Amino acid sequence: MTFVVVENCIKCKYMDCVEVCPVDCFHEGPNFLVIDPEECIDCALCPDECPANAIFPQDEVPEGQQGFIALNAELAKAWPTIDARKTPPPDADQWKGVEGKLKHLERE
Amino acid sequence: MSEATTTKEDRPGNAQAGTRSADLTREDFETAQEVRWCPGCGDFSVLKQVQLVLPKLGIPRENFVFISGIGCSGRFPYYLETYGFHGIHGRAPAIATGLKLSRPELSVWVVTGDGDALAIGGNHFMHVIRRNVDLNIIMLNNRIYGLTKGQASPTTDLNVRTKTSPVGTADRPLDPVALALSLGATFVARAVDTDQKSVMEVLERAAAHKGTSFVEIYQNCHIFNDGVFERVSSKRVRDDNRVMLEHGQPLVFGNQRDKGLRLNGVTPEVVSLTVGLHTVDDLIVHDEKAPGTGMAYVLSQMRPPHLPVPMGIFRDVEEPSYEDLVASKHEVVKSKKGKGDWHRLTHSGDYWVVQ
């Protein structure tokens, strides 16, 4: 089992989650964070920290976002670890809750 | 650990029980119970590593037993799809000893905490290790009484403020590794909860060792003692504050692997490997198999801030297990007097009938 970062993180990337993770399992992309499913210990600390409500246990990933399970696993291998919060993008609050953000995901 | 000697075919009427031990995965050891520790607890990490290690051992699930006492550690058996006991405070080693003597083919694990094992359970802790019963002890050491919400434990550092020590503790703490070594433990290891790879390694080695395997896990209690192991847990600083013990290798540590430990008399001291005065040849070489515990005990005394904390396997030696010794005593008596007759024993000597 693991926790999964889903669509609402894209272009918000608040990074509050990173501060509480005891095992540093978050990986950072240009406008999105993912959780490495091999490192996550299911301690459930991160979901409540996320202002965008973008983290779910694998079994509770919302309808239509199941693709994010594999996406987290894939991108965690490509992206570097992040263990401290940085400044979120200036327009993070405008993107909170916006639907269909997957097309804005930057991989590089 | 002893391998299972019974298979499901040996037990009549149980042909469908268990999964073939060769096919087990982590999921087979997860239960339907919601895992309830505080979010952020280090216990989640240990549970995960145990669920990853057990499938590799070639033992069917029904041959595993996890025995706990009281504390947050006491919850552990509920979260594993194996047999288990949630025992009374500090008594898991006694229950485990009895079980192992009567069912030596089972893979017996004790999960305990610094409070459960070293306060009320100190006596049983001492004797199970002294006897070298073939089982594995995982101690979740968070240096506090977590379940009861923040009282000082026998491993809480001196002068630390807790709910029972508002102006700081007046007790010198026990070091579980040092204690285990002084009891003659045949396998002693330590890992920190956030270093998952290291936790897995010590658990695998503990499982493979025959005799009592004692593993101390530095476990973070997020709510009542957060950050107590920070210097050996945080990836940024841990390599400067801990030395990883590897059998046959010199004690080198540091983020840049630029420091080492040598003996000054019987006291370890840190030397630089880059200044030019010392090389790896001057350093202590770790020996897990040393017959005595002296050197391992010296290592166990290393404390921050001046010395790094040793992690990994301190000792791994083979000595006869308690159940093997007990069995051999039985053979001695049987060869002289034959197998015992329980009926004759209970009907011998003086007895009374109450009417």
Overall description:
The complex is a heterodimer of chains A (108) and B (355). Chain A is built from 3 helices and 4 strands; from the N terminus they run βαβββαα. By secondary structure, chain A is α+β, with helices and mostly antiparallel strands. Chain A has one domain: Alpha-Beta Plaits (2-Layer Sandwich). In chain A, the strands form 2 sheets. A two-stranded antiparallel sheet of chain A has the order 1-4. Chain A has a two-stranded antiparallel ribbon with strand order 2-3. In chain A, a hairpin with a 4-residue loop joins strand 2 (26-28) and strand 3 (33-35). Chain A is globular. Chain A starts with a strand and ends in a 13-residue tail after the last helix. Chain B has a domain at 8-228 and 320-346: 3-Layer(aba) Sandwich (Rossmann fold). Helix content of chain B is 26%, strand content 17%. Chain B contains 11 helices and 11 strands. Chain B has helices at residues 43-53, 92-102, 114-118, 122-131, 176-182, 196-208, 230-233, 238-241, 294-300, 322-337, 342-346; strands at residues 64-68, 83-86, 107-113, 136-141, 187-192, 213-218, 242-245, 252-253, 259-264, 267-272, 309-316. In chain B, helix 1 packs across helix 6. Chain B is globular and about 85 Å long. Residues 1-17 of chain B have low confidence and may be disordered. The chains are: A alpha+beta (108), B alpha/beta (355). The A-B interface holds A 1, 20, 22-24, 39, 41-45, 48, 83 and B 30, 35, 37, 39-42, 44-45, 47-48, 193-194, 196, 220, 222, 235-236.
Distinctive features:
heterodimer; A: 108 residues; alpha+beta; Alpha-Beta Plaits; two-stranded antiparallel ribbon; 4 strands; 19% helix; B: 355 residues; alpha/beta; Rossmann fold; 8-stranded mixed β-sheet; 3-stranded antiparallel β-sheet; 11 strands; 17% strand; disordered N terminus
